[in-house]
Queue: 2 jobs
Job 1
Amino acid sequence: MGAETQDTVDQYGIPIIPDPADAASRKHQAIVDAALTEFLAEGYSAASMEAITSRSGVSKATIYKHFGSKERLFLAVVGGVLPKTYAGLKPFNSTIAEATDLRAALVQLTTDWARILLRPDIMSLRRLVIGEIDRFPQLGQLWYRVSYEMNNGPLIDAFTELRARGALDVPDPGLAVQQLVAVTVGVPQLVHTFSTGTEVDGAELDRMISSGVDLFLARYARS
């Protein structure tokens, strides 16, 4: 078994798999794509290495050479996807403090946030991590940190700055962010997590988010 299958992990306990080059890189990506499809469809326990082999077109020996075991494959694949989940929100989070219309900016941010969270692929990934949280708690910890660092953290910074300017009265910016999430994206995310196949009602989502932002500003905006 090669050096790439050693038990080297990151701060979250996710295996660090070196990026291969050239033809090996194409095989590596084929394995990742096939494994993610299989794990999302079947969960960890029911997922078949034979099915991953068939989907990827790569031999089982090659899969084990790249990843070492089914467990490491699962952690590496899911752990590799999670940090990309909220990537599209970063520019919006970083500009909230400079927005000329704070209400409109918060509605836009939380709407974009909700539409990412409610995507079928993200919902499937969320259910997968929840379903395997006892076996792989490091994935839950990673998802929490990714969410905090890409979403909550920048908003806390923005609310702190808006408080300093006198635009918001937020004694506890961290709590304020949690409350904003709860009254905007929280309920739709909860509903769609456990109601598989439920279509997103755009008008109802817009109504809920607008109302939630108004509720948030009614509490925290300075008159």
Job 2
Amino acid sequence: MDVMNPGSGMKSNDGSPEASAQQSTPSCGHLDPEERILSVAYELFSRRGIRDVGVNELIERSGVAKATFYRHFPSKDSLVLAFLEQRDKQWTIDSIISKARQRGSTPVEQLLAIFDVFSDWFGRDDFEGSAFINVLLEMGPSHPLGQASKDYLAKMRRHVQGLAEEAGLARAEDFARSWHLLMKGSIIAATEGDLQAAQRAQQMAGWLIEHHRK
């Protein structure tokens, strides 16, 4: 991938973050009650946020008794925390980091490939934004769910820092914070309807890489 002209490297295939996450979430029919509840919650929370989804709807859609629901998840917040944990695995690790590593042969290419993956995701009809950003903004940073979202966003930033260190870039932690700004900003821009947000962010990302070369 041409770092000086990173926008030329944008790819398109079926390996988008949300596509992978949906493929990883099995249908509810053959799941045990806990998995069934979490599968339904994953879909609803991803699309509609936290406050708009009530416990009664979760119970009805999951096809479980109220007592069964509360046996597995004593509160709605405990279910949201389980959702965020699953989202981190399916979205951050399986759909972003793993796919970016597959698309690039060097750490720098893998960093830039994050925005290739974003480009596919942003173009999907069911693009719903980042659950971590959404929950943080919806619940606030002082709420336990907002704090959990901050922690998962920081985890994503540490993945970026790791790639920066592998690439031998200077001031890897500062680099990761700036890179994460581009990631979060592109997600917000795509939510606003900018389908070129990933390309714009990737171009700026190339400049950032050059700035941090030792």
